Amino acid sequence: MMEFFKKCPFFSKYTKESSNLIQNISKCPFASQANFSNQNQIRSMHNECPFIKQIKRNYSTLPEFKGEKEGCPFSNFIRNKIPEVSVQVVAETKNVCPFKHLAVVQGKVEEQLDIPPPTSIPKSSLSNQISSLVETQTPTQKKTPAKETYEIFFSNALDKVRNEGRYRVFRNMTRQCGQYPKTHGETIVWCSNDYLGMGQHPVVLQAIQEAVSQCGAGSGGTRNIAGTNKFHLKLEAELADLHGKESSLLFANCYSANVAAISTIVQLIPGLTLFSDAKNHASLIDGIRTSRANKEVFKHNDLKHLEELLSKYDKKAPKMIIFESVYSMDGTVGPIEGICDLAQKYNALTFIDEVHAVGLYGERGAGIAERDGVMHRLDIISGTLAKAFGVYGGYISSSNNIIDAVRSYAPGFIFTTALPPSVTAGALASVRHLKSSKIERQTHQRKAKELKKLLKENGLPVLDTSTHIVPLMIGDPILCKKMSDRLLEKFNIYVQPINYPTVPVGTERFRLTPSPVHTDEMMRSLVVALCQLWDEFGLPRNRGVAAV
Q1: Which pLDDT value is given to residue 480?
Q2: Residue 7: active-site member
Q3: What string of DSSP letters covers 306-339?
Q4: What angle do CA 132, 142, 35 make, to 5 degrees?
Q5: Mean pLDDT value across residues 62-84
Q6: What is the mean pLDDT of the chain?
Q7: What count of Cα atoms within 13 Å lies in the side-chain half-sphere of residue 379?
Q8: d(CA 152, CA 167)
């Protein structure tokens, strides 16, 4: 193994010094320039790295770069060929391997490493070589064997998601104020949940700036410990009015709101059975799991199946039906009126998540329930301030008693620092604006219809939905990621790859979210880029409308 390190001009230098390999990685002319998310750049850098040149002699073609799909060849070699070496030594080997980001996965391991066959490597010699490398690390970076053992669990978990093609990478999409949907790098973003562009609306920005001047940055504590301010109270009153309910309660986000509300309601109603739509959001599912209540899962939007499940229980037994208005991945709409009818027939509470509908539908932006005239029949409504309203936070709206009970019993509310005054002031301004202004909603719906029409006309597999959600089906996680990367590299367009667990395996997709501020020219450029992408990757463009 040491022979291998001696062949690298960079690492042969730093293995002799008492400095940390990782700290000096940026000085390596190969590693410092390699963009590990760009396969073309990786391949070009292969040709410049003396180490890779040494390996290439064993191949007629350059090995395909696959991240860490097959694991680290160094640690795998030790683990598989010399079983008596301890787990800790394997972990140390993996940590000090300077090429652990480059898994060369073709050919025999011993050929790739250019070292003698495993039978000729004594355990003591190998351990000494590993130890000599580990000793070059600074004392603060050394880990005890026990800690190293724990690290393996996390390393294996990460290998698993990489192997399945669903490892997620954060993209720097720093927004450019006043230029949405452009970023500071002039990238056009087509997957934001700021559906109406309210995150940069002048009314919202002014309210935030004034609140900072008045109150400073943070809230100062939980709602019970000096954290409540006038903006919380005004916003909760505004949301209660929006949904036609007696009261509302703010949370840090709607995930927290759903988990806290569901688990607390179950705690306060003995024997409550929950009936959940099969495609409910993760936050609703988490709330159900956290509650440990008896549950029944009905087929997505299937009223007949829901009634079959409800009919198994005594009408006097407590029940609650949990569902959404707009399902954000498929763009389907829940049968709210039908569910309310069944709830009335079987004596059940209703809990609806309107996260992807508030601000976007209804006369005043209260959601699908307002649009369909059934808002008064719902018991608990949850929503977000971070999507159509463009700011941050979540909430529930309901009767005085339900809201007060959740406020008094939910740990997720009681022990969480309150939203900052600037955030609540901005959200308040956004809610008030969209209550009276319809132009944003009208333009939004028009843009969504136009984009779907353009995609269909070009034979791209878009799901036919009645909502603003525009799902473009791909069906393969690795391909979805590659196509997303290609859009960004070639066209400066960003669309997030959607994969499991957000959607079922085999239904991977792009989820396009046109907004009122996406211009017609931006839409045409997007469709042209997608058509080129489909042709480049050899995907058919004549399937028309896709089906879930």
Answers
A1: 94
A2: no
A3: HHHHHTTS-TTS-EEEEEESB-TTT--B--HHHH
A4: 85
A5: 41
A6: 81
A7: 20
A8: 17
